[in-house]
Hints:
The complex is a heterodimer of chains A (348) and B (790).
Chain A: H1 3-16, H2 20-31, H3 36-42, H4 49-88, H5 107-121, E1 125-126, E2 132-133, H6 135-138, E3 164-165, H7 173-187, E4 191-200, E5 212-222, H8 227-242, E6 248-252, E7 258-267, E8 284-293, H9 295-300, E9 309-315, H10 317-325, H11 338-341
Parallel strand pairs in A: 1-4
Antiparallel strand pairs in A: 2-3, 4-5, 5-9, 6-7, 7-8, 8-9
Helix pairs in contact in A: 1-4, 2-4, 3-4, 5-10
Chain B: E1 2-4, H1 5-9, H2 19-29, E2 33-40, E3 44-57, E4 65-70, E5 77-81, E6 91-101, E7 104-105, E8 109-111, E9 114-116, E10 119-121, H3 123-126, H4 148-151, E11 156-161, H5 175-186, E12 208-211, E13 216-225, H6 234-242, H7 250-262, E14 266-270, E15 276-280, E16 286-289, E17 295-298, E18 304-307, E19 310-314, E20 318-319, E21 331-339, H8 341-351, H9 356-361, H10 370-384, E22 389-390, E23 395-398, E24 406-410, H11 411-418, H12 424-433, E25 437-441, E26 444-448, H13 461-472, H14 493-508, E27 512-513, H15 522-527, H16 554-562, E28 570-583, E29 589-601, H17 606-625, E30 629-633, E31 647-651, E32 654-661, H18 664-670, E33 675-682, H19 683-687, E34 705-712, H20 717-725, E35 731-742, E36 745-754, H21 763-779
Helix pairs in contact in B: 2-5, 6-7, 7-10, 12-13, 16-18
Amino acid sequence: MNLAEVKQSFYDALAAVSTMEQLEQVRVEYTGKKGHVTELLKDMKSLSNEEKKTFGQEVNLLKNEVNEKITEKREELHRLEIELENSRMPEFDVSVPANLTRGSYHPITLVQRQCEEIFKSMGFTVEDYSEIVTDYECFESLNIPKSHPARDMQDTYYLENGQLLKSQTSAAQNAIYKKYKDALVNEGKAIKAIFPGRCFRNEATDACHENTFFQMEGIMVDKNISISNLIFFMKTMLSEVFQRDIKVRLRPGFFPFVEPGFELDISCAICGGEGCPSCKHSGWLELCPCGMIHPEVLKAGGIDPEEYTGFAFGLGLTRLVMMKYGIKDIRDLNSGSLKTLSQFTDDK
Amino acid sequence: MFLSMNWISDYVDLSGLDKLQLINKFSLSTAEVENDIFFKGSDISGIVVAEIKSVEEHPESKKLHLLKVDIGESELVDVVCGAPNVRVGMKTAFAKLGATIGDITIAPRKLAGYTSCGMCCSEKEIGISDSNDGIMEITDDVALGTDLKDIYEIEDIIFEVDNKSLTNRPDLWGHYGIAREFAALAGRELKPLDVVDLSKYDGLEKVDLKIEDPLCQRYSCLKFGNIGVHTSPVNMRIRLYYCGMRALNFLADLTNYLMLEMGQPMHAFDSRKVEKIRIKRFDKPFTFKTLDGVDREIDENTLMICNDNTPVAIAGIMGGLDSEIVEDTSTLTLESATFDAASIRKSTVRLAHRTDASMRYEKSLDPEMTVPAIARFVKLLTDIDNGATVVSALTDEYAFRYDDVSLTFDKAFVDKYTGIEIANDTIVNTLTSLGFGVTLSDDTFTVSVPSWRATKDVTIKADIIEEITRIYGYDNFDIHTTALPIYPVRAAQEQTDEERIKDMLVKRYSLHELHSYVWTYYDECKALGIEPEENITLVNAANPNIQTIRKSVVPTQLCQLKYNTAYAPEFGIFEVGRVVEGMKEDGLCDERKKLAITLFSKTSDVETLYFKLRDMLAVLADELKHEALTFEKTEATHSYQHPKNLNAIICAGKVLGEIGIVNSVVSKKIDKKAAIVYAEIDVAEFATIKNASISYREPSKFPEIEIDLSFVSDAFAPIAKAIADTKCELIQDVKVTDIYTDETGKSITTKITFSHAERTLTKEEVMAVVDKIIEVLGAQGINLKNAPAL
């Protein structure tokens, strides 16, 4: 074949290429050691020097052209291959429900954490306390005399050794006063503490009553803590808890460990105070007992009530949880049922 | 307790004031008022006094009568009436045409062929009693046609106070005490009680009375005779009914009326049965029939009123049937007494019988009230029954007196406690209106507490603060924050740990946090083949199923698994809960806080599940403490533990708890095919481990050398030990990359990574270490599977 024929046959061969393998064959066939283009140079012997030079240049040009075309073809084939691969990718069905397998917190943990955050941000310490306490801790140190109905057997779970399952978080008060009183007196550090905990009452259970439930109590003691401060903190704290501006009102309430003692009502969240079945049409919900710490209670904690005053409040954590999530049966919380409780994945 | 606004108004003039607003104020300042307020009589109009002039039988009905009634108008009215008690000359309540009763407006109506132009009403229809036996009979001398509302207190506002909120206020168990509060709240005068001066009977003989027991504080009594009235006046009956009591007979009604008015329970005995009143307890239990006809077991702690040695009443609770007033009673003895409050309460609980009287006595009634109550009783009795006579002198034994309470404080104390400025005048006026004696000199207050507040209620200065502030009104408080120095607040390690543990288990391992009870579920455990273990018990558990406090959270979790097996093929639960591990030396419970984790799987084999849990714990220790865990085989001692693969979990030299497989007996009962593993660690113990900080190491810039060694060995522990024992600082990392078993046994492939911070390692120095390891292991019979590959 002469040069023109080689060129023509190359283009014909290239046009027929559809795979990388074929392309490689064509490359070897034309530019390999024994390829057609290389062979052309062998025919140069018969030519004059002048002709050799010209012919050589022509062959080189052809060789370059062939290489270029092969590279072009390779890139094209490569592109086609990718396109083919892309086209083979199936369309996924994203309408299939997402796999949401994940863990869950007990709702008490979630609400307790939210409350703790609020108090921590106001400089309160969070105190843990045992569930089994002494009569002194639960009653005696809290100005609850021996004859008080709260100490009746039917209300409190007593143990063989005379200890009891704490019927109120207040059982931690005495120990907390003793823990911090030196810092209060010597360093002027106010006692600001909350103590969430599990409480127990010996009563029959139904949708509204449980023998095991959570409370969260708080105290603040310093030289000039007043009723005015108490109302301020309750309002501020509850507004944070419910994440809206809460109206509060106080009514006298009798609890042996506070004086004066109050029942605190908040404006009903559901009707905004207009009156609805949830608040029994009063516009108010009774939420938490609170009051100025009784002087005898401070005294039992080693704090001089003539010099120091303080307030205490108790929040029903279990009740808050039920209000927050609309849980109707209190027993659901201790049911251990994953159907119910696995819903509380997170709640920031 | 129901309260009548009319009754309160007897003692304080509330005219011109908004009653509902006052009731609301009372609720905010004194005691909780229930939401429902009743406007009695507001739905009734046009009821007049009428007299029945003629009664004819209805020709076709046995029940109906045809009446002509006189309603004070020119013509008689035709009425068809079905009441059985109609008779000529009887005065009754009559709803004339246009009258309204509830939703009904009276109009002419055909009844069995005759037109009735109005309706004779029963007391129930008017809403003033339960009586529906017949139409109301009016015996008072009033003009026909008078509107009933003009002569009787049918209209009233009744509100209910939550008894619980009166627990500490013995003075509020009667209308007079409530009226005192309203007077203080409204800024109006409290009127004195209208009473009879009892000294005029001093000449008469006294009752034979002796208090023989310190539980009786005061006993006052008086004898009456010649009672002619048997039915109480209508207004008295209406008040009793509106306040939730049934009218019985005049004397019973009067004692009840006094109780509702003054809060002082009273009891009337037939004088023939109480000639020698003795108040005492008995050494031996006996049965006593109370006036409701019930036999009650009386024990040696129950205080009794006796006629010499014969019990006639349970003190403060209920009278006896035998000494009750009967038809031929001519003389009666009225008791007005106070008893030890705690004793009454305990007796009430023992007898399981709470009465209106005992409810009041439980609150520590004021002994100063017994005599005024009698004086008031005599006044009411003689006003209503002109013939009644007092036949004894007031007999009064006053065995126990409360101390007078006087408190002194200064203005600065009030300022400090309230945090607001309340004027001296306001303080004095408030306390005075509540019955306190107040003197003020140079900003110092001296307050004497009235007897009705001094039985237990007001004893310290802080109590006076409550009196001042509640009347001042908490809504009127200017509220403000505190000015306190700031300082950092650090969370306890245990709390931080607990929070992070929960986050890790939920977020990273998708476990579910559950709560359970602190006691062992006896029946549930039994059903699962878990032997309930002895531990401290509750002495008053409602049922034996919840009697024993748990030693471990694990059995509780297994019970919870049982009813969650359908939740998912694989899931895990955890709880941070309390247990009691026996008793401490001081006799108190050794309460511990435990983290328990249980994994359940129908898809993984038990080994995979076990290692999942093991790694979870290791990550936990690494993440929270940067410490490694080690495990030590232990013996099973509880029925829920599998005898194999029970390991103690050790961290920083402390035993934290254990990891194990659930015994097949138990796990098969939970689910026939599932694998169940558990771990329990002591959270407080874990918290004592210091959090080692991260030790940063700069990565070497020189190449590492990795050596894979496959040893034929049953366990990794000796290999790990041999590597550690070289104490070679060039070793950066040790990993197990493969474990497999073939004909030569179990092989463990370990990848050891060597490097040096400042130079390239030589083959020789690495191989020297490797050879040492091979040699040490070889001596223990643990040989290489093949030559080390570089």
